[in-house]
């Protein structure tokens, strides 16, 4: 596990920027936090005279909430929007904006700069901005608008800033290093194994009695936790690339031209063998005479492969009888190819001079190109031409949908213009539903402030490479207080679980103390609990046969001396593990592995992060920061 983490950290800073710059837009901020010209807005904070407006903060909070919602939705039935603490989220996002402003100023003070050419290269090579492997300006506009960016220049400026921040971070990370002692310590820890035994205490929540008074008291103290879920009824417009395929028409002239290009790439294949006589210095005479003598032997009937093994000075092919395999045009020396492509099958050339020396060349096999007819290739050629048209048309109509949705008060006008049906879904919770509403991007957009509260159409949402959509909230069902009788059983179950888990924790703690003091034997505990001890020997940190939650706790226990060390740990379901740690061992070869680059890279990465964190903290301490 740790070694995999080392590999994960060993990525270049440029690659991280290329992958992460788009994610940053969703997770952190928008163009307003770049331009900083909304000085009339109410201030959320001010950093060395640079204003972070409340509008910027609200947008950043909305985007961060969207990302957190998507992550929480992966929890399935456990997802609860109330898990997001709004005040904590707001404070965290504001701190992130402040840190970003401080670091950008630090990067500028360090005179870091990013060229326009570097930004251009990044944009041209970003797959999200490409159609059929080529940068497409319309595609670029659709993607950045879907991100909430107002212009191309806004996105370029964000890329510039991210590269500057990456340069600043890399200045510290790239200069960090690991000492031999640090590498040895890490190697020991990584190679360490432990011997231990485990016995379980089962949780029995049903054995706990919960009174009506306890349930009512909990309900009164936590009424905010018992609201009906917030729901929405959605309207959606969806465009799929496949919808445009039947509309595409194939021009016969274009089909013929594509056919000619395809068959023009087909060529006969020639397999060659050769005997090479290298030239010694400037004297070509000896090599030429050797080649002529060998040609005479071949003309007299000797076998070419046998003679190649005897005479050829090409070490790469001599053991194969001079075989070079199949050769295509423009893959060898021009004089060599000219001679080869003039031969008939099994014919041997006269001596041919190249930069390598003199060659005798034999054409050992000739495979003529099998040129298919136009009609046999028509289906695939038509599909290729249609795909090109569909790709362009899909981008154009997607851009049109984005523009119409932005300009319209509802989805009626975009649906009419594009001849697309409006679909209605819901009521739906934040966790979504089926079909298009199962997509986290759709639900994140539906519950964004812009769509939910301002009742605006969403920006264009890219569901996958072939599908885009816009959504609108038709109806917003706000949460309502659930009555006590409706949640009584739910509260009783919760209180039973909590009390049972607490009592079991106290019981486990008491048993561990008795074991440690020698007042309780392990055999007696087996009889008392009705469970057997499960013994594990020479278990490493990365062992997959033992629960990772258990392993983390076992490897955090202190090393035992003459007697075992005992501990207890809560399981995810509330049950308890009681652990007897018997021994810790480190193989001798661990020190030899300490020289592995992975250990040095991991430690240097951690040290670089710490150095950068210290610089970030120092910059913040020096900065004039005021929160409003």
Q: What does the model show?
A:
The chain has 23 helices and 17 strands. The protein is of the alpha+beta class and 628 residues long. It has four domains: 210 residues, Triger factor/SurA peptide-binding fold (Orthogonal Bundle); 117 residues; 113 residues; 101 residues, Chitinase A, domain 3 (Roll), CATH 3.10.50.40. Strands 14-5-16-15 form a four-stranded antiparallel beta sheet. The longest helix has 34 residues. The N terminus is likely disordered.
Describe the SSE topology.
Blueprint: H1 2-9, H2 13-27, H3 32-35, E1 43-47, E2 50-53, H4 54-73, H5 86-109, H6 116-124, E3 130-131, E4 134-135, H7 137-146, H8 152-173, H9 180-191, E5 193-201, H10 212-221, E6 231-240, H11 252-264, E7 269-277, H12 285-299, H13 304-311, E8 323-327, H14 334-340, E9 352-354, E10 357-367, H15 374-407, H16 412-418, E11 423-428, H17 440-446, H18 449-452, E12 461-464, E13 467-477, H19 484-517, H20 522-529, E14 534-540, H21 548-554, E15 565-570, E16 576-585, H22 589-593, H23 597-622, E17 625-627
Antiparallel strand pairs: 1-2, 1-17, 3-4, 5-14, 5-16, 6-11, 6-13, 7-8, 7-10, 9-10, 12-13, 15-16
Helix pairs in contact: 1-23, 2-8, 4-5, 4-17, 5-8, 7-15, 8-23, 10-19, 11-15
């Amino acid at each position: 596990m740790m070694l995999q983490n080392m590999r994960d950290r060993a990525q270049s800073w440029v690659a991280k920027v290329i992958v992460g710059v788009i994610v940053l837009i969703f997770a952190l901020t928008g163009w307003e936090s770049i331009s900083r010209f909304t000085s009339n807005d109410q201030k959320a904070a001010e950093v060395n005279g640079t204003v972070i407006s409340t509008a910027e903060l609200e947008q950043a909070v909305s985007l961060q909430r969207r990302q957190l919602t998507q992550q929480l939705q992966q929890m399935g039935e456990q997802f609860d929007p109330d898990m997001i603490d709004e005040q904590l989220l707001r404070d965290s996002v504001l701190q992130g904006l402040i840190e970003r402003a401080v670091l950008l100023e630090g990067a500028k003070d360090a005179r870091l700069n990013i060229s326009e050419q570097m930004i251009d290269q990044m944009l041209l090579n970003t797959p999200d901005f490409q159609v059929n492997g080529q940068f497409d300006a319309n595609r670029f506009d659709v993607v950045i608008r879907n991100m909430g960016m107002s212009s191309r220049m806004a996105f370029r400026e964000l890329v510039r800033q991210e590269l500057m921040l990456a340069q600043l971070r890399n200045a510290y990370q790239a200069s960090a290093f690991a000492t031999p002692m640090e590498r040895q310590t890490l190697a020991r820890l990584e190679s360490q194994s432990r011997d231990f035994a485990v016995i379980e205490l089962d949780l029995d929540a049903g054995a706990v009695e919960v009174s009506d008074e306890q349930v009512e008291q909990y309900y009164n103290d936590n009424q905010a936790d018992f609201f009906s879920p917030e729901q929405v009824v959605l309207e959606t417009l969806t465009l799929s690339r496949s919808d445009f395929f039947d509309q595409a028409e194939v021009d016969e002239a274009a089909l013929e031209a594509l056919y000619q290009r395809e068959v023009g790439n087909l060529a006969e294949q020639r397999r060659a063998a050769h005997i090479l006589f290298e030239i010694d210095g400037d004297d070509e005479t000896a090599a030429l005479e050797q080649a002529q003598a060998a040609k005479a032997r071949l003309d007299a009937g000797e076998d070419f492969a046998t003679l190649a093994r005897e005479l050829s000075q090409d070490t790469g092919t001599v053991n194969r009888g001079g075989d070079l395999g199949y050769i295509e045009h423009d893959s060898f020396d021009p004089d060599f190819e000219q001679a080869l492509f003039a031969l008939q099958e099994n014919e041997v050339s006269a001596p041919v001079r190249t930069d390598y020396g003199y060659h005798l060349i034999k054409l050992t096999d000739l495979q003529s190109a099998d040129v298919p007819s136009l009609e046999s290739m028509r289906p695939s050629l038509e599909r290729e031409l249609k795909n090109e048209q569909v790709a362009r048309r899909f981008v154009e109509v997607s851009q049109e949908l984005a523009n119409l949705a932005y300009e319209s008060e509802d989805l009626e006008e975009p649906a009419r213009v594009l001849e697309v049906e409006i679909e209605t879904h819901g009521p739906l919770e934040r966790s979504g539903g089926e079909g298009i509403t199962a997509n986290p991007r759709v639900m994140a957009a539906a519950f964004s402030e812009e769509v939910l509260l301002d009742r605006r159409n969403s920006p264009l949402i890219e569901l996958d490479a072939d599908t885009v959509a816009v959504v609108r909230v038709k109806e917003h069902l706000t949460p309502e207080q659930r009555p006590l009788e409706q949640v009584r059983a739910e509260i009783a179950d919760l209180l039973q679980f909590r009390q049972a888990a607490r009592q079991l924790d106290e019981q486990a703690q008491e048993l561990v103390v008795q074991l440690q003091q020698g007042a309780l034997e392990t055999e007696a505990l087996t009889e008392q609990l009705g469970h057997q001890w499960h013994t594990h020997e020479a278990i490493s940190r990365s062992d997959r046969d033992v629960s990772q939650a258990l392993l983390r706790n076992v490897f955090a226990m202190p090393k035992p001396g003459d007697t075992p060390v005992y501990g207890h740990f809560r399981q995810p379901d509330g049950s308890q593990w009681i652990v007897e740690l018997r021994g810790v061992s480190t193989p001798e070869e661990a020190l030899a592995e300490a020289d592995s680059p992975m250990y040095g890279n991991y430690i240097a990465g951690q040290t670089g992060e710490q150095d950068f964190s210290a610089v970030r903290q120092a910059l913040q301490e020096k900065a004039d920061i005021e929160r409003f």
